[in-house]
Amino acid sequence: MSFADFVDKNYKPSKDELVALFYVEPIEGISLEEAAGRVASESSNGTWTEVVTMSDRIRKLSAKAYEFNGFWVKIAYPLDLFELGSMPQVWSSIAGNIFGMKAVKNLRLEDVYWPPDMVKSFVGPGKGIEGIRKVLKIEKRPILATVPKPKVGMTTEEHVKAAYEIWTGGVDLLKDDENLTSQSFNRFEERVRESFKMRERAEKETGERKSYLVNVTAPFYEMKRRAELVADLGGEFVMIDILTAGWSALHAMREIAGDLGLAIHAHRAFHAAFTRNRKHGVSMKVVAESARLVGVDTIHVGTVVGKLVSPLEEVTALADILRKDKLDEDWERKILPKDWLGMKRVLPVSSGGLHPGLVPDVLRMLGTEIMIQAGGGVLGHPGGPRKGAAAMRQAITAAMEGIPLDEYAKDHKELRGALEHWGYMRPV
Ligand code: CAP
Ligand code: MG
Fold first, then answer.
1. Interval between CA 163 and ligand 2 midpoint (Å)
2. Which residue lies with its CA nearest to atom 13 of ligand 1?
3. If you measure from the C-alpha of residue 137 to the centroid of ligand 1, how many angstroms do you get, rounded to a whole number?
4. Which residue range forms the structural domain that includes residue 356?
5. Of the residues 149, 224, 251, 412, which is catalytic?
6. Residue 148 in contact with residue 167, Cβ under 8 Å?
7. Which of the residues 127, 267, 344, 387 is marked catalytic?
8. Residue 2 pLDDT
9. What is the C-alpha to C-alpha distance for residues 89 and 95, in angstroms, rounded to an integer?
10. Which residues of the chain have a pLDDT value below 70?
11. DSSP for 299-318?
């Protein structure tokens, strides 16, 4: 069986096959067809040479590169290649060895068409957007979260004091940072216990629902123990660094969170190591789709205007993938058709270098069905975290009412303080 056997330009996949869209750039001396055939081979059931154990029956499982458009290639995979309901196995197949192949100069998995039987084999989000809104009793406006900064280093006491000010200033969700778990100066158990005590006080004082995205990321059994503690203390969310923890851990945590009645906030730390290069790696769309299938409730999508790389067409594509039930093929944004078959919708989180002056931009791009997160943009307010929180909340109200921030700031001094400090700058 040669690489040519993994290419068939007349092939028409059925809707029950998985289709992957790749950007394939061969090395010099190798044709695009051959490189694509090698990708289809290595990601399904081929290898560098013919093997004597191949048979007609096994050959039927081979993937086929069938559509070519410049360097863009679609490859169809028979569903029997996959173990249904296992995201690690899917990634080991279509996002596995192939990125290291000598035959390709660049290779990027850009999007995936997930066939119905595969979609049905995953549970999806436990709460979804509607469930989260219900828990927080916030019907229409964006949900507002803040990560106390410095991201690591504060003692538990300092952390909880900042939490109190953030909540009472008007933020809905306290959020741990991705690398704050249980360090010597701020142990997990103590932080969580003290924060939930403080939450009660903040709720009483404001009359609003307040919650906490608790970063439980840890070696698996510890992560499970931490989630149980969050549930015991009356929490509603766990936060997981899903890419450093891994798909298998997320699968298990989805079951555990489901049993405990907790929602999952997905942090994507590590993604840019393989999503940022537009020609090589795996796109963030594939990460977001995989996360929706395995079952997160909220996930970071970027800001366009903030401190981290996140182009507009990518951020809006992610929001559509997470929030819509169905999508048609969209060649501009390189999206393959989607049908989530009623699976719950995921709330996109816009975060990274945001401050009040940027809130109207984010709402214009993403609408109000989002979570906005600002760490430095709250804790950096010259008047302190409470005023920083109030300024963010005021910016959201102004943007939703279509009032220019400068106008609204005339009789909202916290927002005025933020605008005097940062203006409308876009951080780098
Ligand atoms: C933001 C943040 C988030 C990033 C994640 C940080 O802090 O807490 O982790 O936004 O990036 O550590 O940088 P600031 P993304 O609000 O102070 O910038 O959302 O792109 O995954
Ligand atoms: Mg962070």
1. 15
2. 352
3. 25
4. 128-422
5. 149
6. no
7. 267
8. 86
9. 10
10. 1
11. EE---SSSSS---HHHHHHH
Question: Where is the domain boundary, 74, 96, 120?
Answer: 120
73 bridge partner residues: 22, 68
One domain for residues 145 and 34? no
Residue 428 lies in a domain: no
Q: Is 149 known to be catalytic?
A: yes
pTM: 0.98
**What's the number of domains the chain is made of?**
2
Report the CATH number that the domain containing residue 311 is assigned in CATH.
3.20.20.110
Structure tokens at 11: 């092939």
Could you give the 3-state DSSP secondary structure of residue 264? strand
- Residue 176 falls inside a structural domain: yes
Indicate which residue's Cα is closest to atom 3 of ligand 1.
Answer: 352
Q: What is the pLDDT of residue 281?
A: 98
Q: Which residues pair with 420 in a beta bridge?
A: none
Domain annotation covers residue 427: no
Task: Choose one of 76, 98, 120: the last residue of a domain.
Answer: 120
**Annotated catalytic, 355?**
no
- Dihedrals phi, psi of 423, to nearest 5 degrees: 60, -130
* pLDDT, position 353: 98
The domain spanning residue 76 has which CATH number?
3.30.70.150
Ligand 1: lining residues by beta carbon, under 6 Å? 147, 149, 151, 177-178, 268, 300, 302, 307-308, 310, 351-354, 373-377
Ligand nearest to the CA of 376: 1
